[in-house]
Write a structure and sequence with these properties.
Radius of gyration: 14 Å
Number of domains: 1
Order of helices and strands: HEEHH
Shape: globular
Strand order of the largest sheet: 1-2
Low-confidence stretches: none
Distance between the termini: 28 Å
Structural class: alpha+beta
Strand content: 5-15%
Largest sheet: 2 strands, antiparallel
């Protein structure tokens, strides 16, 4: 896969490579803020913890085989 196409395909996320790992990152607070604003009275802020919670649920429901591989650092 062409790296440029890969980077475009994961937008608004971005890929960061380290010596022994990689990260898929998101600039929280800039993306889908309108959704979190509608849930503000429930305590949602759109911060890294909210996004990590959503991603964890996604893994549990859609990709349970990745639960022990994907780690979150909000």
């Amino acid at each position: 896969m062409d790296i440029n196409n890969f980077e475009e395909s994961i937008e608004p996320f971005f890929w960061v490579e380290y010596e022994k790992s990689v990260s898929v990152c998101l600039n929280v607070g800039d993306y889908k803020t309108e959704i979190f604003e509608t849930r503000e009275d429930e305590g949602f802020e759109g911060n890294g913890y909210d996004w990590a919670s959503l991603a964890q649920i996604f893994l549990e429901v859609q990709k349970p085989e990745l639960i022990n591989i994907v780690k979150f650092d909000p």
